[in-house]
Design goal:
By secondary structure, the protein is of the alpha/beta class. It is built from 18 helices and 23 strands.
Amino acid sequence: MVDVKDLLLSGRSIAATVGADLIGDDRSVSNVQIDSRECGETSLFVPLKGERTNGHFFLENAVKAGSSLCFVHRHYFDEHKAFLIRLTEQYPVSLLVVSDPLAALQKLAVSHLRTMRELTVLGITGSTGKTTTKEMLGAILSEYDRAAVSPGNLNSEIGLPLSALRIRHSDRYAVFEMGINNPGEMAVLADIARPRYAAITNIGVAHLGLLGSREAIAAEKRKIFNYIGRDGWGFLAEDESFRGFLAEACRGSIEYFGPGSTPGFERVEYLGLEGIVLFWKGRRIHVRVIGGYNVKNMLCAVSVALKLGVPDEAVVQGLKKVKPLFGRGEVFTGPVTVIQDCYNANTESVTKVVDFVGSLSWTGRKILVLGSMLELGSETEAEHRLVGRYAADSSVDAVFFYGDESAAAFHEAAASQRQSGGRKFLEWTADYDELKRKVCAYVRPGDLVLLKGSRGIELERLTRELLDGDL
């Protein structure tokens, strides 16, 4: 529940803020919902139109659950006026008629943020690593002062305003993750958040199919710097190939992060599935995230924190408390060990985690379950072929490819093996039940299994089967 109890919002004030017509009595709300199942007393329900359904179809459910106010699209109100008026007569609810519920939600979030005079806003974006970096920075700042961190992946044109409405007047820092799928989205997000400090973790091929090229991705991502004033800071990786182009968009100062740039960095030690040890300013910090690819995320968080004046001890204690979020390098142990890294996938993230698995010392077999990488557009086949060749050349025992798009990866892996004389076990299917049956039949106690794929593939379904199944 997105709760804003320290700024109880009245229907009249919301109407004035977003340009709505208030239908019914002036009622107050303290939380904002886009899912009618999450509504309760004093909820503001925001019905949004998605690919599969329309939130307006669930208005009555939201009202029955206790919503005090509901946004309603003007066209929907005109078409269903009698029904909607009847709702306001039967239940303690009022309506806010708007031309666009999403735009109204965004205006409400902007208004809420602009009242936070003592708040420092930080934005994190990038093709990979932005969620982990956000969590690390949030953990560090929370050791220092009151900090709000956007939960989970609330990073879109919908998620960001919901995150903004979680901010309290007592908060001193707000760390927002800002993700994009299409051209123009970053400008919307940057205008809502207006970060004073912003970091771009990297420019990769995530959402390549929607944005067209890495150059287009860089052009879109750098818009996070648009609202940084001359007293603000932009943060870029020291080895970022687009760093000059990205830096041009920042009116403030640019700081680089990485082993050669982050103050105090000494070295790292890898503990396999136990995480990473960061040696920093004479301290030994055990951070419970896996993979060398997370070192850059860690150093980004440290660099930003230091620029904010965060004490060293807060940096140390914050990093010690970091834990992986769902689908991002989670490790589960049972008859087999499962690395659940299936929140998202693109060529860079897949090859990095495959390298990590290959580097582990393991007495059992190493097995990859690689789901399709989505949103790659015209590059889908080429990128999957790259992954297939990479997996075939890796030091693992078996690779299961899953999903229609992954057929190209399988065929490339098979061709690579024929050419090299490799004997790796390879399988492909687009049917989940078949995947489950084949993986569970192959895996035996003591094996290590990596689950890696895009969110829409839902490979996490295999985790429980592997941990609890009769192998």
